[in-house]
């Protein structure tokens, strides 16, 4: 089958379900971040292990964090919120930037990022056309604060997935308001946040996931990105409202709501 998982709380919900049935962890509360493999011990944070949906299907196998969840003690500010999300595609690489990034790495620009590496060329055949996704501005006039993205999870420690097992595509990197060149797991800037996994074992499943509330994102650009995901699933958008079917279909009527003929 095919599944699209999105919105805040995906990974916390999976972690809570996994922890509740694995002795000696138990309990019903979501395990606290960061999530790490079960290597030296089993506790509420070391839960990335076969049998966990995150490990088996989302392919989160080494590290999932939120900002400063590792407890480095660095003060978080509003600048650690996301400002946009850049596609992992070669046209968004910074020309001449060293790989991997180091102390000589130039700063990012609005349309390039030094964390987009040479492997991004592998995404081009399938994902060309993904747009930069800015944070929305529609809800910033709320009497409360604008949406805070500091608590959005990201993959902090990469995993090499055998091609015989699955194809794991990183679609987007999150970019904070102020760039941080530090690669530490506890810093969200430049970390992968949106992914597509295609099974290669013969089971035939596909899964696209992003643990960020999609309403945080600019809706016009988001529609383009979602269209690419659904296109990968084999669905194409019907742009003619007169022939659309299903929930929300358009029905023509010869009279208006007051019963008057429509001319």
Provide a brief overview of the structure.
The protein has 263 residues and is an alpha+beta fold. Helix content is 14%, strand content 19%.
Task: Explain what you see.
The chain contains four helices and ten strands; from the N terminus they run βαββαββαβββββα. With 263 residues, it is of the alpha+beta class. A six-stranded mixed sheet has the order 1-10-9-8-5-6, covered by helices on one side. The mean pLDDT is 85. The longest helix has 15 residues, at 219-233. A hairpin with a 6-residue loop joins strand 9 (192-199) and strand 10 (206-210).
Features:
single chain; 263 residues; alpha+beta; six-stranded mixed sheet; two-stranded parallel ribbon; 10 strands
Which strand order spans the largest sheet, edge to edge or round the barrel?
Answer: 1-10-9-8-5-6
Largest sheet: 6 strands, mixed
- Main structural class: alpha+beta
Shape field: globular
**How large is the share of residues in beta strands?**
15-25%
**DSSP E strands, number:** 10
**Average pLDDT score:** 85
Whole-Å distance between the termini?
47 Å
Q: How do the helices and strands follow one another from N- to C-terminus?
A: EHEEHEEHEEEEEH
Number of DSSP helical runs: 4
- Fraction in helix: 10-25%
Measured on Cα atoms, how large is the radius of gyration? 21 Å
Low-confidence stretches: none
